[in-house]
Design goal:
Blueprint lengths: L2 E10 L8 E3 L5 H6 L5 E4 L2 E14 L3 E8 L4 H11 L5 E13 L3 E14 L9 E7 L1
Parallel strand pairs: 2-7, 3-7
Antiparallel strand pairs: 1-5, 1-8, 3-4, 4-5, 6-7
Length: 137
């Protein structure tokens, strides 16, 4: 059974999301410094459905770039892989705790604890998307 890997943006900087929040550059600096090892990959933000792991994360000018690998061991991961292959699901999202923000007309998120990254049907930030999918044997 082949493994599915993907790359995309779990967060896009300086864009208001559907909840009225704006993630600012540098918000993930601590997570990037710590590396991806402690960041689970979930299906639809469900902690009962881990579907793989994040292999790479970094901040660039656009946002939080991630590369993930789906597991072949769980039913949820196999479902996610099939939907990702078909481009039926392309959204990315992240779970977080706010450590630093500024309240204005929107909430500016400046310092976040990254709890998880999820493949989702409806991302809070519409531009947070998977951009590439690859299979490996």
């Amino acid at each position: 059974m082949s493994t599915v890997r993907f790359a995309g943006y779990a967060a896009v900087f300086d864009r208001v999301d559907r909840g009225g929040d704006v993630v600012r550059p540098g918000a993930f600096a601590r997570a990037v410094a710590a590396g991806p090892a402690g960041v689970p990959l979930l299906w639809q933000h469900d902690p009962a459905k881990p579907i793989g792991r994040i292999e790479y994360l970094s901040e660039d000018a656009r946002g939080l770039r991630v590369i993930g690998r789906l597991s072949t061991r769980s039913a949820a991961a196999r479902e996610a892989a099939a939907l990702l292959r078909d481009r039926a699901v392309e959204g990315l999202s992240f779970g977080y705790r706010v450590r630093g923000s500024v309240e204005r007309t929107t909430r500016e998120l400046k310092d976040l604890d990254l709890i998880e990254v999820s493949l989702v049907t409806f991302p809070m930030q519409p531009k947070a998307r998977v951009h590439a999918v690859a299979e490996q044997d």
